[in-house]
Amino acid sequence: MKKLTALFLVCATSLLAACGQGDDPAPQAAAPAAPQKVVVGLDDNFPPMGFRDENNQLVGFDIDMAREAARRLGMEVEFKPIDWSAKEAELNGKRVDALWNGLTITEERKKNIAFTAPYMANHQIILVAQASPVRNKADLAGRVVGAQDGSSAVDAIKKDAPVAASLKELKLFGDNVTALMDLSAGRLDAVVVDEVVGRYLASKRAGQYRVLDENFGTEDYGVGVRKDDTELLAKLDQTLSAMKQDGAAARIAQQWFGANIIK
Amino acid sequence: MDYVVSLLGPMAQGAKTTLTLFFVTFALAVPLGLLLALARISHWRLLSQLVNGYIWLMRGTPLMLQMLFIYFALPFVPVVGVRLPDFPAAVVAFTLNYAAYFAEIFRAGILSVDRGQYEGSKVLGMTYLQTLRRIVLPQMVQRVLPPMSNETITLVKDTSLIYVLALNDILRTARGIVQRDFTTTPFLVAAAFYLIMTLVLTWLFQHMEKRYAKYDQ
Q1: A179 with A193: CB under 8 angstroms?
Q2: Which fold has domain A123-218?
Q3: Of A51, A155, B64, B128, which sits most exposed with the smallest number of CB within 10 A?
């Protein structure tokens, strides 16, 4: 019995010693070498800002922008797909550090999110079926309009109170494609959507949809961070402004949209 | 056809997520469900009532709500609050939920064994644990196979709920491709993936039923 106890003690001591050895050098080696990491939250079903290509890799305009900014800051960037309707919870629960995915700057969102300066302007466009008699916003009276739930299109429609009140119904969808499919199926008369996304999707089905001349206003895209994360906000603002000045942002925009739409 | 082939790579990655969640949940929920079932039929009233309350809670609220709670609300609960990464959060929610359903299936299986068999085992000098292991549980396994097959197939399809945590399983991957290419073909491919998985499961359970049926002859 004594032998067993002694053996146990020897084992336990050597195990502890081994643990101690393992612990010691680790923090010293890790601290200076590892660059700071930023976790970018995005809706990975939001072409052309962020989506997956044929090889299941994340690509898109905002992905390239975030990569370039992180490279300049010497930070590691990790992209984490999130459910877009839970973006505030993801950000404030510290599961992601930044929201960078065609995030529209709105007064409502400013209550929970700190925004960088705008990097791109966007319009809330109105898509209708090619043969639709709808020509302008006034024609939408008494008609059913669709938009993505939780998107700024919903805010933009509601802000235009007279038009919003004249609608028969505002139907909200999980994503923009289902809204457009409902438009094709004839259950909707129009879909309100971010211009970058709307034009991308409409181009996939050329000739089916028409963009009205009128829209639901112009808004700005910005990067969102936590309100108390002033350090990251300052760094991003600085880098974004440098990327605009030296033409890096314009180059990325040219690549994705065929035009420089950087603001 | 070339288009469908091009979808298989990403969809197979989605299938990996679906299958991992399925197998991990199944492996954890079956033993937990068995323990819960035994606690539920225990003569110790407090334990039995506690498990009864647990089953009510888990079956009485949507799995999606439980998953959202564990992922988003649990980190802010004092004392017990833990911040689980997305996939472990899903595993915990699925396991706790499915263990409750499995527990009731196992309880039905255990109760279907005639009282006389317990008395017979006692006469033969077996303890309660020996009776469970040698007499009751083997018969339970055979009787719970059809309802377990039901519940297991439901589990395969319920895994699609993890889209709320933005995890790319088969269905969410398909939805992503629908968003990108604006065509509904990926949904059909997703359906084929699910059908193949449930076909294999159906076959496995039928095979097991036949094997256990040998003892009835």
Answers
A1: yes
A2: D-Maltodextrin-Binding Protein; domain 2 (3.40.190)
A3: B128
Given the structure tokens 């402004």, which residue do they identify?
A: A241
Mutate one of B16, B177, B179 to test the A interface: name it (highest A CB count within 10 A).
B179
Q: pLDDT (tens digit, 9 = 90+) per residue, B142-186?
A: 999 999 999 999 999 999 999 999 899 999 999 999 988 988 999
- Superfamily the domain A35-119+222-257 falls into: Periplasmic binding protein-like II (3.40.190.10)
Nearest chain B residue to A54, by CA: B6
- H helices of chain A, where? 2-23, 25-33, 61-73, 87-92, 107-110, 152-159, 161-166, 176-184, 195-204, 230-245, 248-257
- Nearest residue in chain A measured CA to CA from B76: A93
Contacts of A94 in chain B (CB under 8 A): 83
Segment A115-133, tens digit of pLDDT? 999 999 899 999 999 999 9
| Whole-angstrom distance, CA of residue A174 vs CA of residue B163 | 11
Spans of all domains in chain A: 35-119+222-257, 123-218
Q: ipTM of this model?
A: 0.73
Domain B2-216 = CATH 2.60.40.2470: no
